[in-house]
Amino acid sequence: MTTTETTTLPGIRPADQARVVARVLLPAVAEGLVQRRSSVMALAERLRADRAAVDTLRELRERYGRGPLGLRVAGRSLALLLDPDDLARVLSESPEPFTPAVLEKRRALEQFQPHGSLISVGPERRERRRVNELALETERPLHDIAPAAVRRIREEALTVRKRAEATGLTWDVFAAGWWRSVRRLVLGDAARADRRITDSLAGLRTAANWSLLRPTRRRTRADFLRRLRRYAAQAGDDTLVGRLHGLDVAPGTDPVGQVPHWLFAFDAAGAATLRTLALLTGHPGRLAKSRAEFAGADLSRPHPLRYLRACVLDAVRLWPTTPLLLRESTLDTVWRGALVPAGTAFVAHTPYFHRVEVAGPYGDEFEPEIWLDGRAERDPALAPFSAGPARCPGENLVLLTASTWLAALLEDHSYRLDSPVRPRVGEPIPATLNHFPLRFTAQAGSALV
Ligand code: HEM
Q1: Residue at 449 is within a domain
Q2: Does residue 72 fall inside a structural domain?
């Protein structure tokens, strides 16, 4: 098709464009695309900002049709996706002609992972993606390191559980144990107490939130990468970084350079784990099903824990940790007769897709069963771990880690959510659940269920 046979994308009225910026794009950026900001998340929860974003896009779809809609923001051409089939197309045709290495993402992630696969292109990206898939064992529900990982996770989770019985379970109590377990399974037991490495990464991620506006913190980054490489050199093969040893890779691939993304992304997995616990405390039937799944099992060994994994998947569906999926077209593309020039940024707001565009009545409900009975698989609107060739290669590992943590916390213990926002059965699940102020009463036995 030539340009003379095509139109441009349907645009929207300036007032609607301003609403998309104010209600959809800015809140997602302000909450922190790379490192969540607790103060802004608290505000977003109070103002019901995510609900406003989802409603704005629902209304645009009713008025303008299925899109994509053309927008111009800060000198950049955007194509706003509103239709699940369009989302599926963009994700399945990554990295060419829809590259994940979008300029803003590149500038942000370069702060701490200059050689990460997500911001690489061409043969380098292919090789780095391959390294990730090999080390993370993308297709396997139970990674080769699962026995050691489960042992480490369980030790840390039982310490957290004990502390929680005395003080309550808060994000801070949980996160301290979570990060100890992450450092151990990624870098090895020697890194267990090395908060400096994960704290300096958090600092780099905060800078990354500012994307184009902040210069790279070269000294902090160099220090972080030096420490990382030291652990990598010593790590055993029962750690993730140890799985990189001996891989046959093309020059310039930098396998260890993939690890910052792993550490960074485990933060989202921690938030998803605690949110899943919040969902389960408000859904007693599903909590009982989760408990039944591991009743009588020896939890010091790896188990598939399919139901708990489905619960985590549904928590990430309800509160996506990647609220904006971004791609940039490397070629001109045609959408329903409209020509979209190369260099356009395609934007998908995942909370909108996961709540409004879903193929069943589960948009605002906690419905883990969809991940077990084929409904989620058939639903192109669902992409909590993205989809297609740039889909998250760590998904199975996240589900192993999160389900192992949840089983350890729940075994012979019960929790009551005391913080004000409580997702409960029979009520629409709130569009925002700020994980930072979550607070649970914890006790041995099942009295609090
Ligand atoms: C709840 C936890 C997580 C969620 C929801 C998640 C989700 C995602 C999503 C949506 C993407 C695509 C991003 C984009 O297209 O811009 C992605 C990419 C990626 N994720 Fe995850 N992720 C999680 C945790 C992890 C963990 C723990 C690891 C590693 C141990 C990991 C490794 C990666 C890598 C390497 C990529 C880049 C893939 C590529 O370049 O093709 N993720 N993840």
Answers
A1: no
A2: yes
282 has pLDDT over 60: yes
Q: Which of 49, 56, 55 is nearest to 28 (CA)?
A: 49
Nearest C-alpha to atom 31 of ligand 1 is from which residue? 394
Number of domains in the chain: 1
353 ligand 1 Cβ < 6 A = no
DSSP symbols for 411-424: TTEEEEE-SS----
Specify the CATH number for the domain of residue 298: 1.10.630.10
Quick one: how far is CA 224 from the chain centroid? 22
Query: Could you tell me which residues are beta bridge partners of residue 141?
Result: none
Query: Would the CB of 136 count as within 6 Å of ligand 1?
Result: yes
Angle, vertex CA 201, rays to CA 74 and CA 382, nearest 5: 60
Residue 322 lies in a domain: yes
**Count of beta carbons in the 10 Å neighbourhood of residue 111:** 27
Task: Quote the CA–CA distance of 354 and 244 in Å, as a whole number.
Answer: 35
Query: Does residue 381 form part of some domain?
Result: yes
- Nearest-CA residue for ligand 1 atom 24 is 265
Query: What does the mean pLDDT of the chain come to?
Result: 92
Q: Is 121 in the pocket of ligand 1 (CB under 6 A)?
A: no
- When pLDDT is averaged across residues 57-81 and rounded to a whole number, the result is 94
Average pLDDT over residues 60-67: 94
Say if CB 351 and CB 330 are below 8 A apart: no
Tell me what pLDDT residue 209 has.
Answer: 63
State the distance from the centre of ligand 1 to the C-alpha of 308, rounded, in angstroms.
20
What are the angstrom distances between the C-alpha of 255 and each of 36, 79, 143, 218, 229? Answer: 27, 34, 18, 20, 10
Nearest CA to ligand 1 atom 14: 325
Residue 206 has pLDDT above 80, yes or no: no
Query: Which residues sit opposite 324 in a β-bridge?
Result: 349
Domain range for 176:
3-444
Q: What does the block give as tokens for 23?
A: 């209600």
